Amino acid sequence: MLESGQELSARFVLIRRLGRGGSGEVWLARDRADGGKVALKMLPPEWMRHASAIAALEREHAIVSALRHPNILRVQGGLYRTAELAWIAMEYADGGNLSQLRGRPLNDVLRAAVPVASALAYLHAQGLVHRDVKPANVLLMADGTPKLADYDTAGRAGLALDRGARGSPFSMSPQQLDGEAPAPSDDVYALGATLYELLSGYPPFYPDATPERVRTEKPAALPVSVPAGVAELIARMLAKAPAERPAMTKVESELKALANANEHERTEGGRTEAPAVRIEPPSARVGAAGEPLRSEWRRPAGAPAASAHALRREGFRRGLAASAIGIGLLAVFVVFFVLPRWVDGRQPAQSTQTASVPTPSATAERAEEKRTEIDFAALARAKQEAEDLRAPLAERLEKLRTQAVDVWGGAEAERAAEALAAGDKDMELREYMTAVEHFKSVAPLLDTLEQRAGQVLDEQLEAGATALAEGRSLDARNAFELAAKIDPQNKLAATGLKRASTLDSVLELLANAERLEKEGHAQEALDYYRKTLALDPQTTRASEGLARVEARIASDAFASAMAKGFSALASGDHEGARSAFQAAGKIRPNAPEVTQALQQIEQEQRTNVIGTKLRAAQTLESQERWADALKEYRSVLELDSTVAAAHEGVARVSPRATLDEQLELYLTQPERLFSQPVRAAARQTLDRAKSIQNPGPVLQKQITKLRDWLARADVPVSVPLLSDNQTQVTIYRVGSLGTFQQRSLELVPGRYTVIGTRPGYRDVRRQIDVLPGATMEPIVIRCEDRI
After folding, report:
1. What's the per-residue H, E or C state across 379-445?
2. Which are the contacts of 614, defined by CB distance < 8 A and separation ≥ 6?
3. CA 143 – CA 152 distance, rounded (Å)
4. Beta-carbon neighbour count of residue 3 at 10 Å?
5. What is the pLDDT of residue 302?
6. How far apart are CA 361 and CA 712, in angstroms?
7. What residues contact residue 660 under an 8 Å CB cut-off, 6+ apart?
8. Bridge-based pairing state of the strands 86-91 and 37-43
9. C-alpha to C-alpha distance for 145 and 151, rounded to whole angstroms
10. Considering Cα of 428, then 433, then 434, then 436, what sign does the dihedral take?
11. What was the pLDDT predicted at 297?
12. CB of 157 within 8 A of CB of 127?
């Protein structure tokens, strides 16, 4: 049993087990020779009984020790052996394996694939084929250098192997699955499958890589983010026919070219500096659809923007001024040209101009006369009505003004304000009836405006929401500010105004998040999406992006866990596989892939247990432990009732187990043979035992011993009897002996009952055992107890 701290060959000190697979265990150890760490690939004690396992380790050491390439994991020293262990020492790769590159940027994958292709090309030049290229078999050194490892399945090109098709089902070519001789094209296919897995997250035909699918179907298309040149190379590497796959040297050169091209495209003119983060001017910020926002005409700084209502009011005022000027000119024309002619035509000619013009005193007198003719009661009523009408109208108009009616009220608001002002003017001139008419014209206008306020509120909320969606922060702010003035308690307006105030920062963060997501930097994009939602939780693009990236990260983690599980399963590490699949199940609960994988583990473990039990049953058969063998066969059938070997074993072992049980019963309880029926049954059992062909040593011993017991049971034994000539003596199954003083009988071995009777005395009953070959003591039969 290997354990940490154990010392091997006075040189290597075991630290911890790194893994266990189909070809042994791998332990991390410290090499006393230089104090460094090495990886020991070992055959544990229980494997040392298998010559094939030792031969495989020797073969692997012979292959790897002859290879000299910077990307092939080196062995250190020779093949070490003790009485109980065998191992080889390899350089320790502490950077994990190539599976860590799954989901990483394309250039990272290509840079790692080039040296792997170089190592395989070197291997092919030596006439060797690896035959198990997969991410788990490409180890990474501390500095990230990839090293091709695990040559347990390697073979000479063109030389058929007797080990059948071995390797990962996801990376074996159709020819390898068919058991054909190793060929370099097998490694080309496997490297293509490795690249496919690293770029898509899943190996080809995952999770059901049946031989039929590998032979006939094409793998699913790679993600659209994979450049066409890379996808085309992988497709050629995964071609069904070996002749259609490129040579490994060609693969190496094409991977180098693709890596260089991708690096050039990524670094913008050859510079690798990351672009500085800067705040774009409003005209260059990204809009809702991803395009830059177009620039717009702006007023000079500090100048307020003119609304439609302001423009209409300005036009009305200019029109009113022009009309007033026109009326004034017309009045001048009438006064100076028309009126004199009309007056001259109606009055007699005067000698002087002063006689035709009334004096100021005359005019005042006529006005006074006119006023005295007014109905003062009607005037008072008109004044009261005007005052009653004005107060609520002024209050309503003031409330509308607090709701920014001057901005959205249009002509109705202007006419209402002008009519109210005209009414106030009439009130000053005591033209109360005219004022009433003006005030009455205001009410319908205010009704219209008050009814329109709710509609304008909805329009501004909708306009603000649209502006937010389109990335127009200024328009959104204006719309929501107006909505807040119309209804200061409106929650949508308050929320919208808050969102508009952070919109520019939100758009900047969102643009960075979407760029990082597109470039494949999922974790960084996730951070930016979260910052965006912290500023504005209602940003739909951010919440959708966050969900999308989280799903991608979870999918990558799920795929990584599943791949790790299958890798462990392929290496025979069932506990490691179960742990990985259970981790995948936590990421994606109720995933059918996890259920199937766990079932596969159970099936493999069941198969291993069944194999172990069958071998144990066969060993017990060879030891003639029939009952134990039968128990093992039946336990196999409890695990799987379809195992033919177990059914055959039960049929074969059951009669022998029954016979063995019967023989042992006679041999362990020989006194049972004293009964004639039992002896007859024992002879039949002995005959059955003799009829067994090629009996083993146990059965032969049982036959001999039972035959001896039966023979001895047929030899009579002398039994002396003593009595008193008055007691009548009878022996069951023998007969009445009458009365006597002394007598001797020859009885075959067995158990007998002797009865003595005498009138007036109690009967005497004795039971005697006549043993084969024994010398019997006299048996005394006397009735001496008087009734």
Report:
1. HHHHHHHHHHHHHHHHHHHHHHHHCCHHHHCHHHHHHHHHHHHHHHHHHHCCCHHHHHHHHHHHHHH
2. 632, 633, 636, 643, 645, 646, 649
3. 26
4. 9
5. 37
6. 181
7. 624, 626, 627, 698, 699, 702
8. antiparallel
9. 19
10. positive
11. 29
12. yes
Distances (CA, A) of 598 to 575, 591, 638, 763: 11, 11, 20, 79
Angstrom distance (rounded) from CA 15 to CA 688: 60
| Number of residues in the chain | 787
pLDDT value for 375: 61
Q: What is the mean pLDDT of each run of 10 residues along the chain (787 residues)?
A: 83 87 83 91 82 84 91 91 88 90 90 96 94 94 93 85 69 93 96 95 87 92 92 96 96 95 68 32 31 31 38 42 47 40 37 34 42 62 88 91 89 90 89 89 92 92 90 89 92 92 89 89 91 91 91 86 88 88 88 88 86 93 92 91 92 92 88 80 92 91 89 87 95 92 89 93 92 86 93
CA distance 487 to 132: 73
Contact 600, 209 (CB under 8 A): no
Integer Cα distance of 30 and 37 in angstroms: 5
Joined together, the tokens standing for residue 345 give 């035509």
Contact 706, 683 (CB under 8 A): no
Q: Which residues, at least 6 apart from 382, have a Cβ–Cβ distance to it below 8 Å? A: 432, 433, 435, 436
Q: Which residue's structure tokens are 């097998």?
A: 186
Bridge-based pairing of strands 735-738 and 155-156 is unpaired
Q: Residue 100 contacts by C-beta under 8 Å, 6 or more apart in sequence?
A: 140
CA R_g for the chain: 56
Using an 8 Å Cβ cutoff, are 760 and 728 in contact?
no
H or E stretch including 621? helix 592-622
The pLDDT score that the predictor gives to residue 48 is 80
C-alpha span between 663 and 684 (Å, rounded): 11
Q: Is residue 475 within 8 Å of 503, Cβ to Cβ? A: no
Q: Is the dihedral of CA 286, 289, 295, 297 positive or negative?
A: negative
CA nearest to 480, candidates 503, 454, 455, 462? 462
Count the alpha carbons within 13 Å of 673 in the hemisphere toward its beta carbon. 29
**Would you call 317 exposed, middle or buried from its count of C-beta atoms within 10 A (0-12, 13-18, 19+)?**
exposed
Q: What is the dihedral of CA 304, 310, 312, 314, to 10 degrees?
A: -90
How remote is the C-alpha of 75 from its chain's centroid?
38
- DSSP for 168-196 reads -TTT--HHHHTTPPP-HHHHHHHHHHHHH
